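Before relying on records like the one below, remember that each one covers exactly one chain. Contacts with other chains, cofactors or solvent are not represented anywhere in the record.
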Amino acid sequence: MRRFGITLVTALMLVACGGREETRAPVDAELDALFVELQRAPDAASAGPLELAIAEHWSDSGSPTVNVLLERADAAATAGDAELANRFLDQASDLAPNFAETWNRRASLAYGAEDYAGAVAALQEVLKREPRQFAALSALGLIYEELGQERLALEAFRAALVIHPNYESALQGVRRLEPRVDGRDA
């Protein structure tokens, strides 16, 4: 019953994010198989290599040009030039509008600038394109927690765990928030 409730919350979060089929990335059978294995992983040590393989899939747009733009965005962000980084991400999004990673990088830039609304909006765009992005769900949890929205934070962490049952960031978030949130009115 609890898993159904968490799945329902995940679905509601995706609807709230405006998850539409046309923004989703194309089907990737290899990535799908990795998610099946991730669900079956008995512990974090077993899940680690799967998590890395999934992250590799997420970071490869399939376009050398888009991948170079992401590298340039990373270099600009590292150099402290968020404006230039965002311009590179805009170019990458123009070339690959269904690629979730550009939005994930925007979320990081917004979060670093303490633009929490921008970070949340970017993470919602990630989830439109890749609803299984457990790191984006966990990041939403962290942001909501920082903003004092503990129930939303707990729901986001739980949604991440539906996808990746051993995701340490989400496990820690649930452990931190369950005692404070469970039993309280929403």
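Residues 1-22 have pLDDT under 50 and may be disordered.
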